[in-house]
């Protein structure tokens, strides 16, 4: 977790204080359920809630842990300092540390997912607004980095919207998958704790009970969670790369927002670097790198080994914090992206009409010219454009072999941009409903 | 794709003949739609269907491609040889190669997913049967590879069932995500082909129209598909690893099926190797290795570049073929796994009752013995078991300090396995409904 | 292994016939060593060499394997058909299958490395030739995709040369690391075979004896091998990406070679796609994807498990074949790359002299103008270039505040390209010696 | 970077104060070189050294950066506060930020490598000591987790030594590869800074000059660095997995050290978990996850983009800190590993002599018994061991068909462990010289 790539909303989820608060809630709710079942006295269960408004002292817990060498015991000892050690003596009864730790981790991941869902919604809002704004802003479509046929900037935003919207749906699935808790004991048999305790705690913590756990919650859920973040990060990189391409000097169809006052920019107006989207490209790699370790974590020996733990201590916070930061940065970039429609037209016309050569070729053959002849006709005019910088339409209109097959109006029509944008509304309706 | 790790059902999906067949169907259905729209003559559309029962000649198409250097044109040329080149002249009109190629790839992935779904169902059936069979077969649960508390073999199968059932659900999602097609032209604007053609073709091919495509179908769908296969493979490795552990000489709680007649096994009865599950461990890595490249494929330059293509030529077939083979192998291993309940009991009793020491410790404190004393009592008896091979229960019953706190019946009760299995039915009900 | 991305030189290494040939040589050399040690009769050792010129019948061996279910035994049986089963009865004595299999795999990887070394040398030759050819071809250097300062095309080639030369050095190390063999028996103790047999066989096969093996050769060697190929593939992608950028329509400083006769290109001269380098980008991903599984393969249970085997059956051939093909494709692309020096100059001058603004700013301050004033002076002239398309130098020469600080000669000098290229020879001497 | 998995020696390398110190040294040495070249006044160069003993104020630099939005400028501003802004005015002249940043990063990686080299040496020392200690401690070798033939614990340590020794050699190569610096300006042409400045600074900082750089040092060097760490981590996991297996309850041939006083361990002596080696397994994944992003970082657009930067901010510290911690933990585990030779013998004899069945089979055939008969003889005795727990040797000696072929002495000899350990010294000589 790198401070400069972090937002406090997300880092807060991973702070020790938050963790201890969740531990506390799990223990307190478990106490309630045990009291309801008659396993422990009601008054002891109630007593735990006395600490409801306490901010646990992280330094004090660390101090105790230095002695006990066990984090959960250290916390319970500290809790007893607030609740009274006699009152607290039934806390955690029949539970194992993993009951608390694993359920807490999933609470954190679920909350992280909720933030990421909000981030995605912000990205979607920005993409939709820019799509509508530039629905009819024509620019050249490119395959292989080479001019192909006209499209519109709005379609570019719309497809990123559709892609991110799929990402949001996947994220919602991943969130639901990870929102489980388990309080099932040392090997998952509920030997020392009633399954109804698990049910109560999960209901209170916004989780579903894990149908079958061992000492731990199965890690395929986590693998799916991080895999999903990896896919979303890849889509983010896709958008970032488009913007980086648009901003490169020779293209310059868009620029990341650059505040007027920003020094350097106006003495070197050509040197405004797409550093935010370059950064997003790198952040995507960081998010993605958690995917394979999360998958390697799925295999545990028998009812659990602890190999997954160190991995999760790192990727749990790092990956969610990085993606949260990145999605917000992405949203900001999209919201404020400076777009140059005029340059788009200039770029499209770089080879004065040549992008229409295929339409002309088709028109000639449809007008009855043989394929070979049509090809030859287009070629000789195209080469004058390519080599001498002539204008393609002008050349065609001046070529009597061409005008023998096509009327000036027909030729003119082949250069009509409306031909390419006629279905934009249809596509928008598909994407935005 | 390695022949020995392949099943013909899956490899068939990826054969050239299948690919050409799908290409044909797409072109023929597209022709129908165009005829309905009045874009091409009905009779030309109908003529294409004359080739309905043709098995296309792959060698002939390759021969043509050697000249044209273009696979789709080569196929269309060959198609014209069947349909008649005049009749065929409207085939593919207004479409780009990617319309056919990308839609075909998704048809193949969808069919591959259907096979994988069936594979998963076979695995689930096997797991369920064995879970029910061994619902009450007690064995020791282990954390960190170390004996913890008793559980049952049925619970092990049940949790693998639950995990694979989640995998199946994820696979169904992935299948739905990948089941889209696109016939939208060079940059996705439908400039030369009506969106209704796409709708018709997709309906006929069992796909949904891609709401917005460029020259290609967006690759986040494919990334999600391969990520999902990676998670399933990881769960498979989890199961395989459990079996490998069970079969190791010192544990020997289960063995992969070994046919009676198999030479070598009876002269060296101790040397039966879990080679199938070891193999599954390796195959899981092969499936997983497609995940990152599939994610790297998401980023394409502008309306498409072709960097993704070579990756997909490899991972499309390789990953689905490998996982299909592996899941079937896994199902077979589970179906026929030889289980040794007696060894399970022997293993559990290796340290004669010691796994119950925690329950005894708890009972002593609940009986009013101080924590320190209870610990000391358990310790001195436990050490006799550990160091001298004594029987824990016998020692406890002979220790007057222990019997001062607990009756023989109470001590006896702590060694009751029923204590650990009392919620097995509850868990089974959660998993199997 | 995809046929279209394969060269016969490399695929030959991985053919069954090659494998059997290596098996044969290992067995025959082992026999020699055993005879020298007096372990087996000399005549039996000699008899094996009768098969020296035999081309083993792969179909026949497969047929036997279908019965024996064991590949090495099948081969030995077939060998006995050539040598005579009495003569052959000491073949393989005291050895385990893995002795043959692992040593063979390393022979194959070593040979594959030799081909890759030759490939790298071809790439280096091409890069060096083009570097020298374009040593002084000035083009704009870009950071963040934005024009920065002038550099030369030769420097671009030279840095790719230096990078690939490091790759070659790494590859040589990896080759040496993998060039070991082991004939040490079931758990590596040489219980049934003398270490001198291993030494003899390795010497004959061009390998070093593995200092300590178990049943298998340790897999960290293989992990390092595939990691090295992954780094080389990444460098290849770096070069490919540069070319893809250079070819994009708006830049067009270079194009992959396109034969004059190639249809389509001249009727659509703007539509020449960098499909080879796009392909190389994808192939780099395929090479890279073997790295993590190869690392996962390092961990084996005790003296061996067979989880690594399926992984290696795939990545052994696939990765070496793909990289071999890719490096040759890369060499071809570089050798024939069409370079447009004139476009380079045009691109550099897109914002008429503006890339020199920083030098002018520096010159003004060095001439005693305050930073603030210098900045203001540069800015006002730069903005006329940026917004009105004026020429920067002309503007500066006409700005009396500027000329008050700098003479026309001094201003002129700031636009001298020689300033940027003065150390090219120094750098070339560093790279090419 | 997770505090609990960190050692201060390594984290110190990555602290802001260290970074600023390196920046300072680079700038000061660069000043010296420029003064020697007559580019700046000697006194200004000398003046910079006034700050030689200054501990730079990180908070103050952050404060300035909050205004300037540029880290290097913030540092230079702060430096001027110490040196005097007039004296400092030539600092950094002609250099770009990347000259400082990239060279600093490589200084840090080189120092990190030096620590890792020392770590590896500690691991090697421990492995060697334990190898010698247990050179003759016999235990069963296992393939596929199944008993195969006897080996010794010393051989296990020796092979880990050999593997880690290769790792050390690779690490030294990686260190040398990364130990380069570059001071070559905005696009690497040395336009504004003489190459001799780079040479001087590099010599002073313990680096070699990068033969050809752009704005940045080429990232293939870094990819190789992290790939090497990934291979080492994989070897570490290999060792950790061996220990985890040895400690599992049913095997119990070794245990991680557990201090006598450690509570819990003596009341539950069976429950000592290999948590350190499990942790190392997870840490290996964390180290390995940096490999692919480091390879993705190799491709930069033209003379640089900044996509690599965020990746390196994470993996630079995280990966080196994690591996440094892990290697020290590993060394400690090996140094103090508690080994149980008696259990090793017990495990080996689990199936009373059965592991020798293959030797007996061989002896019978060498004594002239036909393969079929020999097999039948071994089988009938082996099955009595397997099914009834008889002793294999006793059974053989009592089987008159066996004793007809082999004398009691010959049978006895087949059970001699010395047969398996006779080449241990040879192997040790290979490994340790």
UniProtKB/TrEMBL annotation, chains A, B, C, D:
The UniProt record lists the keyword Transmembrane helix: no
Adenylosuccinate lyase C-terminal domain ranges (all copies): 352-432
Name of this chain's protein: Adenylosuccinate lyase
One Pfam family hit: Lyase_1
Annotated Gene Ontology cellular component terms: cytosol
Record EC number: 4.3.2.2
MF GO annotations: (S)-2-(5-amino-1-(5-phospho-D-ribosyl)imidazole-4-carboxamido) succinate lyase (fumarate-forming) activity; N6-(1,2-dicarboxyethyl)AMP AMP-lyase (fumarate-forming) activity
Keywords carried by this UniProt record: Lyase, Purine biosynthesis
Catalysed reactions listed for this entry: (2S)-2-[5-amino-1-(5-phospho-beta-D-ribosyl)imidazole-4-carboxamido]succinate = 5-amino-1-(5-phospho-beta-D-ribosyl)imidazole-4-carboxamide + fumarate; N(6)-(1,2-dicarboxyethyl)-AMP = fumarate + AMP
Broad EC category: lyase
Pathway listed: Purine metabolism; IMP biosynthesis via de novo pathway; 5-amino-1-(5-phospho-D-ribosyl)imidazole-4-carboxamide from 5-amino-1-(5-phospho-D-ribosyl)imidazole-4-carboxylate: step 2/2; Purine metabolism; AMP biosynthesis via de novo pathway; AMP from IMP: step 2/2
Family: Belongs to the lyase 1 family. Adenylosuccinate lyase subfamily.
InterPro entries cross-referenced by the UniProt entry: AdenyloSucc_lyase_C (IPR019468), Fumarase/histidase_N (IPR024083), Fumarate_lyase_CS (IPR020557), Fumarate_lyase_fam (IPR000362), Fumarate_lyase_N (IPR022761), L-Aspartase-like (IPR008948), Pur_lyase (IPR004769)
One Gene Ontology biological process: 'de novo' AMP biosynthetic process
Segment forming the signal sequence: none
């Amino acid at each position: 977790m790198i401070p400069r790539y972090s937002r406090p909303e997300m880092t807060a989820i991973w702070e020790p204080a938050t963790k201890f608060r969740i531990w506390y809630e799990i223990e307190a709710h478990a106490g309630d359920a045990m009291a309801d079942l008659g396993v422990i006295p009601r008054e002891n269960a109630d007593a735990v809630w006395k600490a409801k408004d306490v901010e646990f002292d992280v330094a004090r817990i660390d101090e105790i842990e230095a002695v006990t060498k066990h984090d959960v015991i250290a916390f319970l000892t500290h809790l007893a300092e607030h609740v009274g050690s006699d009152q607290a003596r039934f806390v955690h009864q029949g539970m194992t540390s993993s009951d608390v730790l694993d359920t807490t981790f999933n609470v954190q991941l679920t909350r992280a997912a909720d933030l990421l869902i909000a981030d995605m919604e912000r990205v979607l809002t920005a993409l939709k607004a820019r799509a509508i704004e530039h629905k009819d802003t024509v620019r050249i479509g490119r395959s292989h980095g080479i001019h192909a046929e006209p499209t519109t900037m709005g379609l570019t935003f719309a497809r990123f919207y559709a892609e991110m919207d799929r990402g949001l749906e996947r994220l919602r699935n991943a969130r639901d998958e990870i929102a489980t808790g388990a309080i099932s004991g040392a090997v998952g048999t509920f030997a020392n704790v009633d399954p109804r305790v698990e049910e109560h705690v999960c209901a209170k913590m916004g989780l579903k009970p894990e149908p079958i756990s061992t000492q731990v919650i199965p890690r395929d859920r986590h693998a799916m969670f991080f895999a999903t973040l990896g896919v979303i990060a890849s889509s983010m990189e896709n958008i970032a790369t488009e913007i980086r391409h648009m901003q490169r000097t020779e293209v310059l169809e868009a620029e990341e927002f650059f505040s007027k006052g920003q020094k350097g920019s106006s003495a070197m107006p050509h040197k405004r670097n797409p550093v935010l989207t370059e950064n997003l490209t790198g952040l995507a790699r960081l998010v993605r790198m958690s995917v394979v370790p999360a998958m390697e974590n799925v295999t545990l020996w028998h009812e659990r080994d602890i190999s997954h733990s160190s991995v999760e201590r790192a990727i749990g916070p790092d990956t969610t914090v990085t993606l949260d930061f990145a999605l917000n940065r992405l949203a900001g970039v999209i919201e404020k992206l400076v777009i140059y429609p005029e340059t788009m037209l200039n770029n499209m016309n770089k080879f004065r009409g040549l992008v229409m050569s295929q339409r002309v070729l088709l028109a000639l053959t449809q007008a009855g010219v043989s394929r070979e002849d049509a090809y030859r006709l287009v070629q000789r005019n195209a080469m004058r454009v390519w080599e001498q910088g002539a204008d393609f339409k002008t050349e065609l209109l001046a070529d009597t072999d061409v005008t023998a097959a096509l009327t000036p109006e027909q030729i003119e029509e082949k250069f009509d941009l409306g031909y390419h944008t006629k279905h934009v509304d249809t596509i928008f309706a598909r994407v935005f409903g």
